[in-house]
Task: inverse folding
């Protein structure tokens, strides 16, 4: 039996503790987080409150609806694309320096915006940054505010007091040194965690991954010991000096000091210029047949909530251009281990080392910023079991785990929604087509042959 939550969102395929859903009137596809209201430590309503506080900020998903449905607490959000962890794994667990620089500015902006609203995130990690969809497919989103905490009193505006002997909150792999030492977290700790994320992208792993211990407490202690014993210069060895400078700055901050976010962004802009990649134009040298130019909006310097990726141009060679017949839309429906949902496949969490080898040589770009992510193969192929595999470069990296028919239906739906934007779906051919596509998506019928040509 179909389940409709909030009186208007028809649930689709269940993925872990979440689902995707379709608005019964507008046919909009959304993400749904579900939590049993009898759970010992419910946090969905708290997270919904945070989304409301942050609403309107660039790179923050919209809270569509939140409430109780039967025995469940339900949160309906914008559907987003893959997490940076998903893309990192798909790229063979290494990002180019250009990619890291592009991501760094947006990620700093997102953290700065959360801080500007009086909150700490306290769980900065690759899984909690997602790419957008469609026209916002080059925008980084920050998600999962279940561990967020106010650092300023809402009435007095005073900073929370310094405390010690606190339990570790967040993900041990990316936790700051002070967090390991039991010190109350503040703005400096979110930024230090981001530094570990950026180095993780550059290095492929961090020195404290893969440590073995009998208990979680012992493992956290080992991670702490290794992290504190690793000098910044050793951690950042073979990488530009700006990354070491980033950590030195974070460690110099006092507990209640406001970070100079602009200084940190300038560090990476200066690095980009020194490497011959200006802030306005970051492109991939690993894409022999596709070049991406990304122009940053200087207005984002003045307002951290303004999305800093202003425009983009994609030039493709003739051998590749014929592949890009689908629109630059992407989403994370059934099978995709996006952080909007809990994947059926285990995604590396907390401090656990992940020993996967990724998905091969390339990313199949569904949006035009993706060629920045290591298109290392001239023919956009990869090798599995010794055989060359040709990937559908338009949507393959988004629809991991989906059957071909479902990929086609989702793509068709996004195409129709974009092409007919502004046309009411209540009557006429548009409604009939969308209803048919939904029927296929919900496994009630099969795709008609006439749609194969779309």
Result:
């Amino acid at each position: 039996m179909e389940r409709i939550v909030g009186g208007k969102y028809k649930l689709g395929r269940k993925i872990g503790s979440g689902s995707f859903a379709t608005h019964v009137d507008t046919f909009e596809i959304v993400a749904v987080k579900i939590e049993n209201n009898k759970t010992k430590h419910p946090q969905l309503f708290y997270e919904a409150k945070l989304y409301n506080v942050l609403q309107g900020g660039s790179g923050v998903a919209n809270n569509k609806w939140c409430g109780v449905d039967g025995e469940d607490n339900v949160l309906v959000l914008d559907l987003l694309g893959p997490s940076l962890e998903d893309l990192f794994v798909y790229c063979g667990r290494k990002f180019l320096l250009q990619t890291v620089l592009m991501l760094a500015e947006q990620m700093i902006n997102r953290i700065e915006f959360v801080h500007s609203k009086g909150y700490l995130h306290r769980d900065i990690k690759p899984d909690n940054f997602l790419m957008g969809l469609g026209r916002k497919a080059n925008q980084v989103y920050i998600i999962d505010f279940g561990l967020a905490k106010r650092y300023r009193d809402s009435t007095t505006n005073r900073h929370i007091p310094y405390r010690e002997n606190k339990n570790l909150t967040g993900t041990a792999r990316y936790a700051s040194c002070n967090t390991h030492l039991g010190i109350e977290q503040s703005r400096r700790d979110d930024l230090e965690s981001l530094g570990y994320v950026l180095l993780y992208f550059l290095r492929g792993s961090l020195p404290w991954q893969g440590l073995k211990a009998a208990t979680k407490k012992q493992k956290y202690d080992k991670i702490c010991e290794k992290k504190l014993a690793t000098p910044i210069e050793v951690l950042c060895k073979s990488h530009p000096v700006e990354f070491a400078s980033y950590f030195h700055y974070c460690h110099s901050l006092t507990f209640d000091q406001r970070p100079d976010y602009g200084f940190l962004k300038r560090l990476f802009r200066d690095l980009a210029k020194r490497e011959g990649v200006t802030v306005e134009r970051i492109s991939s040298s690993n894409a022999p047949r596709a070049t991406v130019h990304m122009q940053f909006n200087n207005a984002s310097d003045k307002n951290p909530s303004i999305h800093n990726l202003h425009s983009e141009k994609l030039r493709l060679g003739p051998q590749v251009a014929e592949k890009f017949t689908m629109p630059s839309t992407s989403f994370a429906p059934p099978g995709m281990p996006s952080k909007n949902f809990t994947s059926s496949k285990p995604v590396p969490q907390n401090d656990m080392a992940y020993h996967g080898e990724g998905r091969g040589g390339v990313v199949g770009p569904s949006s035009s910023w993706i060629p920045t992510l290591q298109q290392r193969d001239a023919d956009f192929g990869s090798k599995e079991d010794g055989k060359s595999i040709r990937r559908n470069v338009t949507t393959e990296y988004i629809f991991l785990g989906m059957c071909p028919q479902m990929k086609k239906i989702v793509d068709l739906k996004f195409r129709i929604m974009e092409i007919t934007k502004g046309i009411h779906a209540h009557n006429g051919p548009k409604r009939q087509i969308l209803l048919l596509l939904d029927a296929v998506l919900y496994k009630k019928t099969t795709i008609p042959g006439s749609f194969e040509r779309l």
